[in-house]
């Protein structure tokens, strides 16, 4: 879409507004713009900042032979765009530059990261971050900012090709900086990044961030790992990071719970054989056998979601398992009245297996309780309780010890 030189005759506020609207509309529908008749530096800079893809006019030079054109380009530190580079820069031209957002377009040729475009908002944000001003064609990171570059450039080069925006947080000169970036395009020698810069230390929520809760929240976005040093006990507790402390404790609980379920299932698997064997020897224990069968079915239907360890589900599970254990205990007691059954080799084997299961159940319950205790202490105590509350880590239930539960029933 060509913008005629007539718009530059007066170059009034109205004509500037029209030109900006035309350029922005063209980008939205995927059309490039060409402005002709540009003669002044003011006109050129306005069009460039508005995002006009092609600009021509006497501002650069009057029509001249090819050799003179090359000399003019060198004088203005410009290079000739090759045919193969056209699609690369056409992709960059699709970016809407008519925005108040603190954006910048960077070119990375893997030797240096150069500034292609920087908005006024980005310039202001750089100043707020304590960074030096940047200029088109110049290095985005000055020599004094080489450390900052070492933190950001690997992040930029790891961005997926033409992907969505990703955020990166760094600490620099006492400020916390948030860089949001995406790769716009690439060719065999260069990549183009679109970045937004924000000094989150100076955000509107400064007052909220001044609280301990806010500081912890920001710290977890910025630092890879956080540990709490207790100077009184001389202990260091890992609470957040790549291997989140709470997540590890949750996983330990889930693993321990899996063992609890395994031993309870092993006990349940023995019940059908025991019931069938006792049934062949007894005539008057039908009520006891039915109670055992029903208790086993109830225990099989009791489950606990390990995503949240709901207290009601946990209580129902424990109650069902205890009911099965008590019914089995009553059945074993009743066997005392049948000497032939007591002497049966298969029965003795099942009895020994049940005794082993009950001992394993006590052991695995204790191990689960130990992991739950460690997790719950982190949820309750300061300052890790702040992180727990922030990310929804809540207290988990555990097995309550009954009188005499420290050992397997004597009848087993």
Write a structural description.
With 412 residues, the protein is an alpha+beta fold. The chain is built from 14 helices and 10 strands. The strands form 3 sheets. A 5-stranded antiparallel beta sheet has the order 5-4-8-7-6. It has a 3-stranded parallel beta sheet with strand order 1-2-3, covered by helices on one side. Strands 9-10 form a two-stranded antiparallel sheet. The longest helix is centred in the middle third of the chain and has 37 residues, at 245-281.
TL;DR of this structure?
By secondary structure, the chain is of the alpha+beta class.
Please describe the topology of this protein:
Blueprint: E1 2-3, H1 13-28, E2 34-35, H2 41-50, E3 54-55, H3 66-75, H4 86-93, E4 103-108, E5 113-118, H5 120-128, H6 146-157, E6 166-172, E7 175-186, E8 191-199, H7 206-209, H8 212-222, E9 225-230, E10 235-241, H9 245-281, H10 286-300, H11 311-335, H12 339-343, H13 345-380, H14 384-390
Helix pairs in contact: 9-10, 9-13, 10-11
